[in-house]
Amino acid sequence: MANLGHIARESSDITRLAQFYKEVFGFEDMETPDFGDLKVKWINLPGAFAMHIIQRNPSTKLPEGPYSATSAVRDPSHLPMGHHICFTVSNFESFLRTLKEKGIDTFQKTLPDGKVKQVFFFDPDGNGLEVASRSES
Fold first, then answer.
1. pTM of the entire predicted model
2. Which of 9, 22, 34, 131 is deepest in the core (most CB within 10 A)?
């Protein structure tokens, strides 16, 4: 049996990206191994998984795409289905208020059965995110 260990994200500002995930989702700082010249931050979502945030090499040209921070496509209603992480929350309406208070642009929808609500948005580096309500079935 396998478990999710961590998700890696590159960023031009690892502190900013770590702070976003801590404020929006409740990630916590964790011990970060020394990688020498490579700047990294490790954060942990208690009981779930860790995120490894890696300083982007400025000389590396990232591919353009709707999930790239340099892309012109930043409308959450066009978030590509194959390029996002999904979280679930127990209080969906409260979470929506938090996003609105932070000025984060979102796109919302409800599945046809009406049981699951979804909100789509981007992190500060243009990575796609989804948050879904927990089904009350």
1. 0.79
2. 131
